[in-house]
Amino acid sequence: MRVLTAICVLFPACAGAIPAQAAPASATAQVKGVIKGKCALPSAAPITFSTVVPANGKLDPALANLSWTISGLACNAGSAISISARSLRLNAPRGSLTPSQSQAVNYTATASGWSPGAATVTTGDTTSLGTTALYTGVAQSQAAPKSGTIIISVSNFTVSTNKGSSANSAKPVDGAYSATIILNLAPSI
After folding, report:
1. 72 φψ region: left (φ > 0), alpha (ψ -120 to 50), beta (else)
2. How confident is the model at residue 2 (pLDDT cuts 50, 70, 90)?
3. What gap in Å lies between CA 168 and CA 102, rounded to an integer?
4. Considering the entire predicted model, what is its pTM?
């Protein structure tokens, strides 16, 4: 063995008998991909608010000051926000009412703090019986990725009536009322 090793050191022709070491290599590769936009809401549940109308038919003035703060929203791309709502309606609706009564109250819901302009919706029941229709406002755009908080508020309560042009001529019948507000947040790409 010693003789063979000495001979291979002296003669380059024996290079195949000794394992060769690889030279370092490098390469450049271009990677392309698309990351889909995604938004996260902390809770998918709609907001439900309620009130009790007393026998005098007067709405609680505190309704005009209701607001909810939703924290922990995030979108990894530009996004669109919209808000949908159902009118404030008697929980156990009646099939008929006298002309001076109503069981539906329209209002405006606003979502602010996400896009440059607030997202708003106004419910539009046109009869005193009301409906379960879902009204959706125009989406507002947020051009850049964002995380943050949205404030939802309600205002402009008007009694829905079919008594002609005077929107406040009918009074709500007494009982428990509730309404639903749904926040929609989605990537715009």
Report:
1. left
2. very low
3. 10
4. 0.77
What percentage of the chain's residues is helix, strand, coil (to nearest 5)?
A: 10, 40, 50
d(CA 56, CA 43): 37
Task: Say what percent of the chain tops pLDDT 90.
Answer: 53
What is the distance between the alpha carbons of residues 77 and 34, in angstroms, rounded to a whole number? Answer: 12
Dihedral angle sign, alpha carbons of residues 110, 82, 126, 101: negative
Beta-sheet strands, E only, within 22-168: 39-40, 47-53, 67-75, 79-85, 88-90, 101-102, 104-112, 119-122, 135-136, 140-142, 146-159
Tell me the per-residue pLDDT of 18-63, one tens digit each, with 9 for 90 and over.
Answer: 566 666 777 888 877 777 889 988 876 688 888 888 888 888 888 8
Instruction: Check residue 17 and give its pLDDT.
Output: 55
| Beta strands 67-75 and 135-136, pairing class | unpaired
User: DSSP class of residue 2?
Assistant: H
Residue 22 and residue 8: Cα distance in Å, rounded?
A: 20
The Cβ of residue 94 has, within 10 Å, a number of other Cβ atoms equal to 12
In 10 A of CB 73, how many CB atoms?
20
